[in-house]
Amino acid sequence: MGFTIPRVDTLLAPYAEKSYQKYVDEYLSICDNGDKNKADEYATKKVYRDFEQGFQSWEMAFNSVGSSRGDYPFIAISFGIGTSKWETMASEVALKTRMGGQGKEGFKRPVLFPKLTFLYDGNLHGKGEKLEWLFDVAIDCSSKAMYPDFLSLTGDGYIPEMYKKYGKVVSLMG
Hints:
By secondary structure, the chain is α/β, with parallel strands linked by helices. The chain has one domain. The protein has 6 helices and 4 strands. The chain has a 4-stranded parallel sheet with strand order 1-2-3-4. Helix 1 packs across helix 3 (85-100), helix 2 crosses helix 3 (85-100) and helix 3 (85-100) packs parallel to helix 5 (132-145). It is globular, with a radius of gyration of 18 Å. The model has no long low-confidence stretch (mean pLDDT 90). InterPro entries: NrdD. GO terms for molecular function: ribonucleoside-triphosphate reductase (thioredoxin) activity.
């Protein structure tokens, strides 16, 4: 049993924007200087930390709650083609959280769930493209934690065809 959360980066982005606005307001209510740049820096760091804590809690929950049969829920998330500030931040933090592993300091290990699927689009992630840096983070994560899996949206086959034709991603579970 399990489920897939497709395009988790685009799913979480509107909530990150709301949190960002809340943190900007919080900063401006505390600091009398009204410095918008410092408010932006403060709020962006807080949203980044929210993402970190959220992905860490997902990993802890999904890898520590087994069923009576001794198995774990199979949960998968896909991400990588969102281009906004919050979408790319969500993708980056998901990858960096996986690379960091779970457990006590000095004994951290990568976990299995949620299964990470990086959506690769050569027009976004290819050499010299806007999100090449994010693809590099995904490759680094893969070298350290065996995930993410990569799903090409620019190759041949059913999934790239659907993406090219409709602009929609078919996110796989396994």
